[in-house]
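Reminder to self: keep the SMILES exactly as supplied, no canonicalising. Ligand is S-adenosylmethionine.
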Amino acid sequence: MCVQNAVFNEKTQLEFVIFSRAFGCKDRAAWQGVTQEALDRRTAWIMERVVSEDISEHMNKVYERTAEQCAANQAHQFVIPELFEFVSLFNDGELVLDMGCGNGRDAFFMCSSDQAYRASVMRSTVDPSTMPTQALRVKAIDASAHMIKIAERVAKRVDASGAVRLRYPPIFKQADMHDMSGWARLQQGWFAGVWSCASFLTHTPRQWIEPTLRQIACLLKRGGIFAVSYTQRQRDGGYDHLKISSTGEINYFSHPDPSEICKLAAKCGLLPIRPPRTSDYVGAGGDVVQDLFVTQFFRKEM
Ligand SMILES: C[S@@+](CC[C@H](N)C(=O)[O-])C[C@H]1O[C@@H](n2cnc3c(N)ncnc32)[C@H](O)[C@@H]1O
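Structure tokens returned for the bound complex:
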């Protein structure tokens, strides 16, 4: 660790470039004065001085440090409506992969056939009898060992309580979605579906998009479904964003353009099955970012 790094007790190369090189901060107090606007102005400069591995390493450390906070965050307790649609596309017992599963919320939704439970994790009030009854077998991966521990802890609790019936217990595994080659080779064509919410394309360095889409296509059976939800490019911005979070962490967000994703997916044999669907971000203070979230559904060519 270099001298500047020691001042901050920094853990990642990205933090070193931001704190010490872009802003010349000698200590934490100096950093406190840096605003989001100033960080936005320096982002392109910072990005030229780090590589994709630095970004990935940084986000992994951030999630390791904040896993308990993320898992406990009330704003993250609900599944998105598109998960309901995703599950409806499969027969009972089909195998799907959840990439960047976090605390396993979506994996539990997919593995359970319990309509009342499924209705209880939808944000708006829904009639449980409208929930799908088929359950899926789920393999769920996350790069953060801490997140996987939390998901396994929740699975044990759910199992022991007997309150939620998981027809097929999910399998959680620590793995990097941008480098699945080690185990994915063995599981080519195994999955009927791949799901990723707020993970792939949310924290993905641009040059890793196409290789990851290619791996997803390899993992899917012919005709398999890939659904991904992420924060998309806004009118004012390009790729690569650094955001200071409420906990003081600096998060990297990709913010790709959905039409670019469509083109890259098509190159990998993944064809859109309906137009991208967007929804708004509504902050705790009532602030709204229109169409920030986008969900896209693709089918692997037959
Ligand atoms: C915002 S959380 C979303 C978690 C969950 N999908 C949800 O919707 O609640 C992002 C998750 O992606 C995981 N993640 C980020 N980069 C990853 C990578 N390269 N491979 C696997 N997981 C990753 C993080 O560890 C974190 O758990």
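Points to follow up:
The beta strands are 95-99, 137-142, 171-174, 191-197, 220-231, 241-244, 250-253, 270-272, 277-282, 288-300.
Residues 208 and 217 are 14 Å apart (CA to CA).
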